[in-house]
Amino acid sequence: MAIDDMQRTPLIAGNWKMNLDLTSAGDLAKALHQNLDGLPGRDVVVIPPTPLVHAVATILDESTIKVGAQEVRAEASGAYTGDTSIEMIKSIGATYCLVGHSERREYHDETNKSCCEKIRALLNAGITPIYCVGEKLATREAGETLKFVEEQLRVGLGDIDGEEVLHVVVAYEPVWAIGTGKVATPEQAQEVHGHIRGYIGHLFDPEDGEGIRILYGGSVNAENIDGLMACPDIDGALVGGASLKADVFERIVKFEDV
Ligand code: 13P
Q: What's the rounded Cα separation, in Å, for the pair 12 and 55?
């Protein structure tokens, strides 16, 4: 994909997490295809559980909606029972992949270093990583959010160069806002997003900081999306629970561009 094509077009991604089955995922994909295909000015990605990626990608094949995977292993192949390689998700239609989601960090020992390896391997394969960063409540209350997120970025993006960073999407997901109904205020989110942009400019080049897309995630819904998207450094959303209902997700994708 040409970098120019990627420059900060709003991107709304639905992370379906460990929900739905073949039938209900197919129904959701068909509804989204019908109502969001070809929508101008938006990039839309759905991220089903791995066993459902192929079916969803087949339904969305002729549409502008892209499909992602929630997790991969960096190694190309081998004795890793239960794991999924990048070529596998690529061969079934995924063009995006989450990396470092807080639920993977919490339940599967994902570290900044393992994220770095996955981001490197995904870029080698031409898959767009969506690199998730964000602090727990204790870190925020200790006033260490910005430092914590900087470290996640420094290590996670540590094996790529300036040209490549624009092929990465960053998602800021404060852990205390995920699935809790406690959305960050637009001011709280904007503060961190602005800082992430500046820090990526510092790590790579100021133009990279300006060009990279930074999504907000954590209790995004149809009511709060407009306020979040009005923030200058928020380029889209990574939506969990609210992405499972077609009408709600459609409203989020069609946020009011103020
Ligand atoms: P919720 O939107 O359900 O809070 O989940 C956010 C998230 O983790 C998206 O990756």
A: 21
